[in-house]
Design a protein that fits this description.
The protein has 126 residues and is of the alpha+beta class. 29% of the residues lie in helices and 18% in strands. It has a single domain, classed as Transposase IS200-like (Alpha-Beta Plaits, 2-Layer Sandwich), CATH 3.30.70.1290. A three-stranded antiparallel β-sheet has the order 1-3-2, with helices on one face.
Length: 126
């Protein structure tokens, strides 16, 4: 029996989904360079109530900073009540979307804690 954190590699470089009904992950190289990938980031327990003008403004500044830092463009993003959609495009061979998303998640979690919308997280957990 496979654990929740395990995934098996398929012949095309993707992995089997962790949960039934989920799409398989792309191979590691699919997130590097000039790749274009649609990302969906969910809020813990699909929580709502965090999306307001203050968070949106700070998130856009964070997004801009992350884009410059990791050579990634985000031509389209959509903040929904319980998740975020991002369309990311690597700008050059140095583009690294996985590192971009890791940075964005960590700092978005800090924003949620600072604004009091995520009492379940501490700064150490972010």
């Amino acid at each position: 029996m496979r654990g929740l954190n395990a995934a098996s590699r398929m012949s095309d470089g993707t992995t089997e989904p962790f949960f039934p009904g989920h799409l398989p992950r792309l191979g590691p190289g699919a997130y590097l360079g000039t790749a274009i990938v649609h990302w969906t980031l969910t809020v813990r327990d699909r929580g709502t109530g965090w999306l307001n003008a203050s968070f949106t403004t700070r998130f856009r500044w964070l997004l801009l900073h992350a884009c410059a830092r990791y050579s990634v463009a985000c031509p389209v993003h959509c903040l929904m009540p319980d998740h975020v959609h991002l369309l990311l495009h690597g700008l050059n061979g140095q583009g690294d979307q996985k590192r971009f998303v890791r940075f964005l998640r960590r700092h978005s979690n800090i924003l949620l804690v600072e604004t009091g919308h995520c009492s379940g997280l501490t700064h150490e957990e972010c």
